[in-house]
Structures are given as C-alpha cells and as structure tokens.
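For reproducibility, we list the full input for the coenzyme A complex.
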Amino acid sequence: MTDTVILRAEATPFAPALVLRPWCVGDAPALVEAYRDPALRHWTSSAVRNEDDAMRWLRGQQRGWAAGDRFGFAVLEAPTDTPHRQLAGNVVLKEVASGKPSAEVGYWTAVHARGRAVAPRALQALTGWAFDTFGAGGLNRLELLHQVDNPASCRVAEKSRYAFDSVLPAAPPSFPFDGHRHIRRRDTEIPAGG
Ligand SMILES: CC(C)(COP(=O)(O)OP(=O)(O)OC[C@H]1O[C@@H](n2cnc3c(N)ncnc32)[C@H](O)[C@@H]1OP(=O)(O)O)[C@@H](O)C(=O)NCCC(=O)NCCS
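The corresponding predicted structure, in tokenized form, follows.
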C-alpha cells in the first residue's frame, strides 16, 4: 500500500467526526496514556507500560502495513472548533492474506472517549474500506471475536452490523472464557446509492 490511507466517520449530534489514519511514532505518548486504563489492559493482549513498549507496539503496526497482513489505524476525534485532534481509539484489520476469504477486526476506545460510539463508527469505516480494498482479492467475510463477559464489545458488534455467529470455547491463557464470534459478510453490504 503506497499512499497513506485516511478514513473518516461522520459526527453525531453528540460527538465529533472521526479521522482514522495509520499509527505513527509520534503517537507514543498518547498510546502510553491510553494504556494506563486497567480495562484496556484487561481486554487487550498487548502491554504498553512506557514509551519503549509504545515504540515496539507502533513498529509492529508499521510492519503490518509493510507486510500487507495487518492494518492498524489510530482513531482521532476531530472537533470542528479546534485544529487539535485527540487520540480516541484504535481499530485494526488483521489476518489478511491474498486469496483468503476471511480476516479479523479488533478495536479499543480510550477511556475519555467511551460512550460516544467511537468504536462502532470507526469499525464501520474500516469495514467499508476492507471490502473495497481486498474484496477483489477474495475477502468476503470479516470476523469479530470477543469474550462473553465483555457486553460493551458485543454492543459494538451489534451496532456495526456484525451478526452473532457462534460461541467460541475458552482457550486459556489468551482467551480464558467462552467467546462470541460475530461475522459481517461482503454480500450484505449495501452498494453506494442503493
Ligand atoms: C468496548 C469498547 C471498544 C466500546 O467502545 P465505545 O467507543 O465506547 O463504544 P460505544 O460508545 O458504542 O459503547 C458501546 C457500549 O459500551 C458501554 N458504554 C457506554 N459508555 C461507556 C463508558 N463511558 N465506559 C464504559 N462502557 C461504556 C455501553 O454498554 C455501550 O452500549 P450501548 O450504546 O448499547 O449503551 C470500549 O468500552 C473499550 O475500549 N473497552 C476496552 C477494550 C475492549 O474491550 N476492546 C474490545 C475487545 S474484543
């Protein structure tokens, strides 16, 4: 992918518009701040305790873009009354491979931005981009996995039209409880103008 990918999600009556762009090294301080939240650390597999961890995490994102198998976006809130854009979350398309029909999505929202539909709006933008970009290469199904004891994540799936598919048995240590698999299929996409 040669050009920087910028995605957007519209404002709501209660929340500013979102801009999604690939993570960059300048995001390290905001990333460390986001990971101070115990809920974020609990529900994600990464540990970002300091700027060194953050740089490792950010380089991992850059490797994913370079390899073409993982596409992580920083989600920024873009209030109209200020040029400053604050980090609001992360959304990622992963497990992408040429000719493979499925890939996986993931997300988190920084604690200060929760409850404003940041994750569902960012996920909708990512989903459209993923099918537009990789559909011709065979991608026709996106999977979203979450633990059953994470109802907020289940709501993000529902609000983003990822239909419940099946219960996943626990797989400790990374997945200690049963989970849900939600799926969104390319053939359920509504064509533009349709
Ligand atoms: C799950 C998560 C991504 C939701 O993001 P969000 O941008 O707040 O999404 P929404 O605003 O649509 O809220 C989704 C649900 O979160 C809950 N919620 C709302 N406000 C909240 C707040 N201030 N704090 C925590 N949860 C809140 C509600 O159940 C809401 O559902 P509802 O809209 O039906 O009331 C976010 O809580 C998060 O980052 N959690 C930690 C990481 C995580 O769980 N990632 C997913 C792993 S599978």
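Residues 39-40, 43-44, 107-109, 114-120, 146, 150, 152-153, 155-156, 159 surround coenzyme A (CB under 6 Å). Helices lie at 28-34, 38-43, 51-67, 118-134, 151-159. Both points were considered when choosing residues for closer inspection.
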